[in-house]
Write a sequence for this structure.
């Protein structure tokens, strides 16, 4: 499904406000900024949405585990709070590892589909990063198998915006047995929406704003071009998956995989 992020989620967009005191500094900043923009623009691709939080999560897990092990005299209530934080960190790191694993699998099974999104550009030729997170089914308010969030940059109706910044798309997929198929579906939405964002946003507003829709139907009016693209990607992925399955071992389900990763991480935390 497609969800309009501006109207459905509160999102904080970090805006850098810099004040330059002289022209030289200003020029240096401009050059640096340009290099940074070029570097970011070149690296447009599918990314693991947990990656930017990973280092902090790992450090927090180490620190909290150490506290639990070394401080024998902490209050039981404090211990319970720390233990629940540890569980949450393990759960999020598990989701990071699962996302790595499933993105790699998708790339192996359907390399052409993956590559189309990995190199996707908007209507102005700018590369766009697509951040994917596989999430537990109780982690979103909107109950849908997969969600592609849609938002435009202020003053640039062609530029995609998400919680990851300008020229980025955020996609969230439930951890279910057919997560890879759901990912294919959402990437089909991305395939259409990134190059036709301005046009599609108008279509979306006209057809879905103020309407009562079942979440999985949003983005799927009979003539919705984004919905058609999502259905096509699903169909193409099914075909690739069937082809892959003929010459490879059966693929482990994401639900079984997530349990295995979590178990592994939980046993490893004893050695942190
Ligand atoms: Zn859809």
């Amino acid at each position: 499904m497609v969800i309009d992020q501006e109207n459905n989620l509160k999102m904080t967009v970090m805006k850098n406000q810099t004040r330059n005191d002289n022209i030289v500094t200003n020029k240096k900043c401009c050059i640096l900024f340009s290099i940074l923009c070029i570097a970011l623009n070149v690296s447009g691709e599918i990314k693991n949405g947990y990656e930017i939080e990973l280092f902090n999560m790992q450090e927090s897990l180490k620190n909290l585990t150490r506290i639990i092990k070394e401080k024998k005299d902490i209050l039981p209530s404090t211990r319970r709070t720390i233990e629940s934080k540890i569980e949450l960190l393990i759960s999020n790191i598990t989701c990071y590892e699962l996302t790595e694993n499933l993105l790699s699998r998708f790339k192996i099974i359907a390399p052409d589909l993956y590559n189309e999104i990995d190199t996707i550009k908007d209507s102005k030729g700018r590369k766009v990063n697509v951040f994917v997170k596989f999430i537990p089914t109780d982690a979103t308010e909107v109950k849908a198998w997969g969600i592609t969030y849609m938002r435009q940059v202020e003053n640039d109706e062609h530029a995609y915006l998400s919680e990851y910044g300008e020229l980025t798309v955020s996609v969230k997929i439930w951890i279910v047995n057919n997560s890879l198929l759901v990912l294919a579906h959402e990437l089909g939405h991305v395939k259409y929406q990134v190059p036709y964002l301005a046009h599609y946003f108008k279509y979306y507003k006209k057809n879905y704003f103020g309407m009562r829709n079942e979440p999985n139907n949003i983005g799927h009016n009979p003539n919705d071009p984004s919905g058609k693209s999502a259905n096509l990607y699903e169909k193409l992925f099914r075909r690739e998956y069937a082809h892959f399955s003929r010459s490879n071992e059966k693929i482990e389900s994401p639900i079984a995989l997530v349990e295995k990763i979590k178990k592994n991480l939980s046993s490893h935390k004893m050695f942190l």
User: Anything to note?
Assistant: The chain has one domain: 2-11+43-271. The pocket of zinc ion is lined by residues 1, 185, 189, 219-220, 227, 230 (CB under 6 Å). Residues 2-11+43-271 form one domain.
